[in-house]
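Lecture notes, continued. The same structure-token format from the folding unit now serves as the input rather than the output. Read the line below as a description of shape only.
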């Protein structure tokens, strides 16, 4: 029965995947506002920014609530993994997890940061700079807590491994998280403005994508660099890449990531130059769906990878 709730079980993988999605999308929300929408110079710029600021806090709120729920589920799954499913939740067992282990410290940081995010979210609609900075700080704390309970915690230099992993997540959030929020928040916001001429709508979408592309390239480079460093530190060479279970899982992740990269290059080289016309907007929607679906598979495989034994363990 314990195998259903072990750290490599589907239940634990699903919980880690949800936490990763929350991390990436929360980071993406701030990248979208500060690095994409702030650089938007297309039609109705002030209206687009106001419409995004109206919709984005709602998503940040839901992501914070989901992160709190996933953190509670993670505590229950950790209890089952450590003590077995035959042992009922008790004050002593939970206290042991939360107050006498490094895992518990990371859990407290993640949960309190997620609660703070969802508490601040309604105040973001007032466009208060202080509230946005406070929410970003809480998000950074929530994201930084995720590697503390994984492989970085067992590294020779934990702070260095954790910092690299944090930069890796920032790269993922700045690229894929902001793409997700661009798709579900910024583009619908641009379409919702009362100035509803079809050409104006397509021009706004084109302007948003042109503002997104340079930041996506920068964050993708950060993601690739930190991912390569992390993989090399974990593998210690090329042979374990196909001779170990960890390496083969990493290859699967790289396979899905190559689809994400190919879709991103297609958007950049083929779709973006044609934006401004209705048919290009339709192509953008389809290719972005492919990119985000492949990115979701990357997150799921990563959720398996972070609990897999590294070569030599």
């Amino acid at each position: 029965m314990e195998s259903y709730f072990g750290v490599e079980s589907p239940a634990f993988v699903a919980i880690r995947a949800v936490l990763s999605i929350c991390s990436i999308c929360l980071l993406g929300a701030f990248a979208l506002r500060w690095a994409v929408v702030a650089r938007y110079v297309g039609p109705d710029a002030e209206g687009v920014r106001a419409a995004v600021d109206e919709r984005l806090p709602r998503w940040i709120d839901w992501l914070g609530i989901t992160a709190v729920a996933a953190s509670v589920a993670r505590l229950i799954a950790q209890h089952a993994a450590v003590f077995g499913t035959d042992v009922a939740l008790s004050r002593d067992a939970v206290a042991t997890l939360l107050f006498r282990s490094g895992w518990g410290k990371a859990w407290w940081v993640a949960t309190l940061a997620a609660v703070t995010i969802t508490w601040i979210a309604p105040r973001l609609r007032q466009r208060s700079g202080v509230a946005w900075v406070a929410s970003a700080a809480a998000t950074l704390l929530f994201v930084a807590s995720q590697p503390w309970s994984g492989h970085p915690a067992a590294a020779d230099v934990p702070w260095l491994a954790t910092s690299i992993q944090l930069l890796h997540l920032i790269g993922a959030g700045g690229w894929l998280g902001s793409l997700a929020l661009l798709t579900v928040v910024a583009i619908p916001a641009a379409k919702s403005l009362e100035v509803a001429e079809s050409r104006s709508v397509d021009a706004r979408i084109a302007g948003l994508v042109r503002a997104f592309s340079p930041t996506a390239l920068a964050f993708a480079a950060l993601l690739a660099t930190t991912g390569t460093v992390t993989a090399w530190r974990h593998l210690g060479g090329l042979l374990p890449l196909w001779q170990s279970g960890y390496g083969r899982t990493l290859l699967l992740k790289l396979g899905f990531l190559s689809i994400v990269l190919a879709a991103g290059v297609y958007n950049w080289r083929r779709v973006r130059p044609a934006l401004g016309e209705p048919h290009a907007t339709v192509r953008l929607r389809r290719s972005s769906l492919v990119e985000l679906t492949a990115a979701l598979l990357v997150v799921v495989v990563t959720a398996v990878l972070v609990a897999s034994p590294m070569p030599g363990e």
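Point for the exam: DSSP finds ten helices and no strands in the chain.
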